[in-house]
Amino acid sequence: MRSEANVFGFRPLSVWLAALAFFLAGIAYAADTGPDPLPKEIRIGYQKFGTLILLKSKGDLERRLAPLGVSVAWAEFQFGPPMLEALNAGSIDFATTGETPPVFGQAARGSQLVYVGYESPSPEGEAIIVPKDSNISSVADLKGRRVAVAKGSNSHYLLVRALAKAGLGLKDIQVSYLAPADARAAFERGAVDAWSIWDFYLAAAQETLGARILVDGKGLVDNHEIYTSRRGFAERYPELVKIVLEEIAKIDDWTRDHPAEAAEFLSSQVGVASNVIELALKRRKYGLNGVSPQLVEAQQKIADTLHAIGLVPQPIRVADAAWMFN
To answer: Where is the Solute-binding protein family 3/N-terminal domain (predicted)?
Structure first.
């Protein structure tokens, strides 16, 4: 016989306690599987080239993130490989480099690197240069000569490609692995015969030293500027990565449409003459792209080339580091 309490829909206390426990467990599960709150800070690596230095200088990203309670910590690097070492070590969360450093970064043991975006190709933004009065007139003339380059950089790959096209290899020249500032000093005092380098260093050598371009990247390299992050960071905070990329795209558009203004602005920020910066900005191509099969294919070609000549010790599969937004 049913009790009066059950006729009117009441349930024993044990039933309600069980329901409450189930409800609380659901809340806990949602908390565990829902989106993580944004971090208090995003740490970004940049160089004295490309879009990120403008983004840093103008402060647009800070203004965008301030209402979300996220600050930005900027870390400057001379070139890409040390920056991606810092990325893999967890010292920064987001980085910008040329196309070659991510290959070395992915090849590192325990790599956490993922590609999150890239700029349109700018092959004229890097070159092998010689002093204005040099008797070197072709890449073939570099045989036996001293050539400065930053190890693992975009211009390292340019040097490899240019030599191969001339029927030479790295073994046929005397390679001086130097960071850009040291390479500039060596080039200026005649300690090296040629220098494989990118903008703004390239533009500065042309404008202040009268350096002559032996060959630039056209027909040899794409010279993409590539944006990378740590896998754990990108997967945990995809909305934050999207915001950074959105602000990069805005700065790209502004710089493309206002190169002289951008050059003047950057000149005051980094202490480089505006005519040097404007030269570099005008030969740069603009347009942010998401990670694409075309990028993966291009990066795989670099990886295979560097592995074939022993610069990358083991083969890598670039597609494994291609991060896509959900």
So the answer is: 41-262
- According to the model, what pLDDT value does residue 73 have? 97
The residue extents of the domains of the chain are 4-33, 41-122+224-321, 124-216
Output DSSP code: residue 323: -
Q: How far from chain centre, in Å, is Cα 229? A: 9
Q: Measuring CA to CA, which residue among 284, 276, 256, 221 is closest to residue 50? A: 284
Q: Which fold has domain 41-122+224-321?
A: D-Maltodextrin-Binding Protein; domain 2 (3.40.190)
Identify the weakest region by mean pLDDT among 1-10, 131-140, 194-203.
1-10
* The length of the chain, given as a count of residues: 326
Q: What is the pLDDT, as a whole number, of residue 252? A: 93
Q: Provide CATH code, domain 124-216.
A: 3.40.190.10
64-70: long-range contacts, CB 8 A cutoff, minimum separation 24: 64/243, 64/247, 65/240, 65/243, 68/38, 69/38, 69/40, 70/38, 70/39, 70/40, 70/41, 70/42, 70/240
Give the model confidence (pLDDT) of 94-127 as tens digits. 999 999 999 999 999 899 999 999 999 999 999 9
Q: How would you classify the pairing of strands 126-130 and 194-198? A: antiparallel
Helices of type H across 59-116: 60-65, 80-88, 101-107
Helix axes 238-257, 51-58, angle to 10 degrees: 100
The per-residue pLDDT for range 201-240, each reduced to its tens digit, is 999 999 999 999 999 999 999 999 999 999 999 999 999 9
State pLDDT tens for residues 165-178.
999 999 999 999 99
CB 284 within 8 A of CB 199: yes
